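Posted in: Protein Modeling Q&A

I'm a second-year student putting together a small comparison for a lab meeting, and my supervisor asked me to include a predicted structure for Alpha/beta hydrolase fold-3 domain-containing protein. I've never done this before, so apologies if this is the wrong subforum. The sequence is pasted below exactly as I got it from our records. If anyone can share the structure token output, I'd also love a short note on what stands out.
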Amino acid sequence: MKSINDDVKIEFPGIIRVYKDDFVVRLFPDLNVPPSNEDPDTGVSSKDVKVLSDDGCHSVRARLYLPKTSDSSAQKKFPVLVYFHGGAFCLRSPESMVYHRYLNILSSVAQVLIVSVKYRLAPENPLPAAYEDGWAALKLVSSNPGFDPWVAQHGDLEALFIGGDNSGGNIVHNLAIRAGHEDLTDQNSVRIRGAFLSHPYILDERSAKVDVAYKMWEFVYPGAPGGSNCHMINPMSPGAPSLSRLGCSRMLVLVAGKDDMRDSEIRYYNAVKESGFQGKVELYVQEGEDHVYHIVNPDAENSKLLFKHLADFLHK
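Accepted answer (user: helix_wrangler)
Welcome! Here is the predicted structure, written out as tokens:
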């Protein structure tokens, strides 16, 4: 086990440390939990599946969440939500306890089938690896639902959604942009009904308040075109793809009042609204709450209100 006395190349205190030999230590406390046949609190079933394998170099996995169905509704179809967890592109996974609990609740409250994607993490796999994994997973779900019996039997791809928080919210934006320029299926038969971005990792204006977030971006994507002003982190930067081409029918941007990135997130919402985007864009701000409060404390009253809002969005 390495110690702090060994040569350290870079460290984000309490988050991640990388040594000069590229050995990585994640300092952020996390606990992984297994899937469950039936969650005792929500009745939601979950399982881990392989979503995609490429040329043999790596595979992408996901955790699926299926709401409880009665015998009389065994063939019931649910909206399909492809979800991307947060963690600044370098932490967390679908197996993380906080995400497992959060998505069990969301699946139950909103009555949606969730595909939570385990994308590759930086720095071992710097961006754009996570974007490529996200696109590949989204394409597979939309073009070949038979990859898993739950999706094939219970998924309604006419109600396909994407969602995510923090870095996952950033992935959602970039997938929606790509979906506005590329077809998800060869037949162009499936489109994204809606996209929600919870407290997304979006930056457009340097300040002391978000300095660490900018440094983290440079850490997870050292070769980013445009550096810290790359259109993938700053969708409002000069030369960024037009927000009018977002490939979804509706968008929901969720903001926490005490989040350091709240101003950038609100400017993003306004930019989408003013871009000529033909869909509907909505802003949901919860003052007095901090970044991803609904994930770290899903039982709080404000979290319950947010779950209800998400449920309404996923069924409009």
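A couple of things worth pointing out for your meeting: Residues 86 and 92 are 7 Å apart (CA to CA). The chain has a mean pLDDT of 94.
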